[in-house]
Automatic annotation (TrEMBL):
PANTHER family: 17-BETA-HYDROXYSTEROID DEHYDROGENASE 14-RELATED, SHORT-CHAIN DEHYDROGENASE/REDUCTASE. This is NAD(P)-binding protein. One of its GO terms (molecular function) is 2,4-dienoyl-CoA reductase (NADPH) activity. SUPFAM superfamilies: NAD(P)-binding Rossmann-fold domains.
Length: 290
């Protein structure tokens, strides 16, 4: 997919990875629509900064959108098509990681599990669905109504969707709720790639390790220590700019479809246990049980 001259939606567009992605795409000549839940004045200011970082041809617009609201996502995507045109895909970065104090009780995670399932999993399906339908609308509904046109296929590359899973998609003990949700994101990615393949839309996902962002700002030394012990290289948290080249690679490489790409420095997640000498479980150093 050619980036220059295309339009992409970036969800979580004012966040760490989302913001870096938006600046990368604008710098390469794409227009971007930033979907997030920050106040409009905050989002508009950031969109202006993103646009100013480009060559002057590409545009950046902010839309306050709750990705769990299907109607809101559909309407926002329609506005993007009307205002920026040439919609070619989405980089779906929006998500949450909710923590609770560490205890041995499992049921205490149920409320967080439900909320993360709604945002991280259902939100991914909603965003993927409405982006794909907007790209396919002229062919799915050729008479401009809700009536479905005949089934069609194409060999033309028409769009690309990049989802974000996580290194925690191979769950271990600390991610009781968050990890399984990110496993589901990989499942959605594979299912969407199969369903959308006939219409020329590719779908891939990225699984980063710990990325420095507002969401990880209060993380404890637990993660740094775990990276030092169980990553290969680099054994430190990543910056967003170390993730965006993989997004560019997926968008531009037509041969990539239905895969999840780890960007994790070879981090191998394990369930930390007390040392041979006993003592506290190292997981208690984590900022919370996700």
């Amino acid at each position: 997919m050619k980036i220059e001259g295309s339009t992409f939606v970036v969800t979580g567009g004012t966040g760490g990875i989302g913001g870096a992605t938006a600046k990368m795409l604008v710098g390469l000549g794409a227009s971007v629509a930033l979907f997030d839940v920050v106040p409009p004045e905050t989002g508009d200011k950031f969109a202006s900064e993103v646009e100013a970082s480009g060559s002057g041809k590409a545009k950046a617009l902010y839309h306050k959108v709750d990705i769990t609201d299907s109607d809101a996502v559909r309407d926002a995507v329609a506005r993007v098509v009307d205002t920026l045109g040439n919609l070619k895909g989405v980089v779906h970065c929006a998500g949450v990681a909710i923590k609770r104090p560490w205890t041995n009780d499992v049921a205490e995670s149920i409320p967080n599990f439900k909320k993360m399932l709604d945002i991280n999993v259902t939100g991914t399906f909603i965003v993927n669905a409405h982006i794909a339908d907007a790209i396919n609308k002229p062919l799915n509904h050729p008479d401009g109504t809700d009536k479905h046109g005949p089934f069609w296929t194409t060999d033309e590359e028409r769009g690309v969707i990049v989802n974000f899973a996580s290194a925690a998609a191979n769950p271990y003990a600390r991610v009781l709720s968050y990890g399984p949700g990110k496993t589901a994101v990989i499942g959605i990615t594979k299912a969407m790639s199969d369903f959308l393949g006939p219409s020329g839309i590719r779908v891939c996902s990225i699984s980063p390790s710990i990325v420095v962002s507002a969401m990880t700002a209060n993380f404890s030394p637990y993660f740094s220590n775990d990276l030092k012990q169980h990553a290969t290289f680099p054994r430190v948290p990543l910056t967003a700019d170390q993730v965006t080249p993989t997004i560019k690679y997926i968008i531009e490489n037509v041969a990539l479809n239905g895969i999840d790409i780890p960007v994790d420095g070879g981090w191998r997640l394990v369930s930390a246990k007390p040392g041979n000498g006993g003592g506290a479980d190292p997981r208690e150093l984590a900022p919370g049980l996700e």
